[in-house]
Amino acid sequence: MVIMRAIWFVSQIAFFGLIASRMVVVEDYFRYYVSGLSVMTLYSAAIFIGFDIYEEAEHGVFEYLLSLPVSRRQLVLGRSIGGGLRAFIYVGPLMCIALYVVGITNPLNFLVALFALFLFAFGVSGLSITLAVVIKSSDRFDILMGVLDALIVRLSTAMYPLSFVEEANPFYGWIANLNPVTYASELFRWGVGIESALSFKNPLLPLLGIVLFFSFFLFVGVVLYERTIEGGGWR
Amino acid sequence: MAVKRHILYILENDFRNFFRYKWWLVGLISMNLADLFIMAIVYNRMLNPEIAKQLKSYFDFFAPGLTVTGLFASAFMIGREVNMEKRREYHQYLLSLPMSRLELAFGRVLSGGLRGMMYMSPLLLTCFVFVGFPTLIQLLIILCVLSFLATGISGLSIATAVSTRSIDKFVTARGLIYYLLFFCSSVFYPFSLIEQLGREGKFPTFLVLFARINPLSNAADLIRSFLLGTPPFSPEMVFSVLVFSAVFTGVAAFAYIKLIERA
Description:
Chain A has 235 residues and is mainly α. In chain A, 80% of the residues lie in helices and 0% in strands.
């Protein structure tokens, strides 16, 4: 998975990013696209924790985890943070390539953006755990993740500025406005200093969106985890 | 007659396996449709005026490219199965079946191609509905070229699968082939842009040449030439796909026969 994603990432930069930047009117589109690509990769890596839950359930590791002397709340919190950190470790080298390509103009802004990306990765892990626990079928989870991945990335500003999404279809624009991938992409761009095509003038708005996304899925994840796993309820 | 029957058994078996991946297929379809109905529509608004003059509509330009990528992804799936069979030694059972090695190899290559055609059909129909319908002769040429392309892709996939020992190596090789063929082609952007980057020295000449002979570029441009009129039709488009198909069907059949006997 790591190798496959790395090849995807590099070919997206070297081919799609480079060629598509000649095709569109967006100023500095190459750097714009590479930043969005980093967020897309982070999202894909963080969502993977849900698949691990099914594998653990299949191999009986789930029961072992439940028998550990930690509360359910600590367990789900640990899984979310672990999933997010793991995604960050995996995406780290790819993000370094992206940063080399786009450069950083304001290190302080970048640190704030990095913090927001951590929260985003934890939130995505929480979302993945929540869906995995609710759906209880690896096949259905697989398809939902495929569909969600297709929609959540394309209906965001990871690949194109919000104004064009809104112009293409107001409904798409409405979804992109509420999409956590949009918030993460915008903050990352703000962090590295690509401010020409930013959709939100005030970076506090996407930051608030990320915090809400993270808190919501952490809370929902904890509640659902506590309610559904007891007595083999996750089966 | 017996040859035909044996190949039909292989086809039946591989089609049954294909439907076992229904969830994967639904994911792939949603990805393809999202690319067309979201990404292409937004890119339509973002085109720079020069390219907009050349393409008119990115949606129309991209729909044939998407059809070809769908065909590629689904025809390539057979390789994963062949690789898994080799690792689980299921190929010993296949070799014990009362049919010749050539029938077995040809059946596998053909079924991979037909599965690709089956998956691609709704995408091609969607392309016709939104972009325009070709004449009967053009439709026959499109279907014929896409069938050859699908068989060639299936062959490429099988050749890759039997020459890699572990799933990791197969996945890495698949990734390299996938993305090189996808992105270094005129599926997502007109070939003139790749040429322009080549002239400016920002793209190596061999990659520009690769994009030109890439069968995905040629198949997508063939559909565009019939539906949109640009680029103009050239026999080179058909020739490139036929050569690709002949080479990889032959290589795959040979590699399959030789390597699974040795495994």
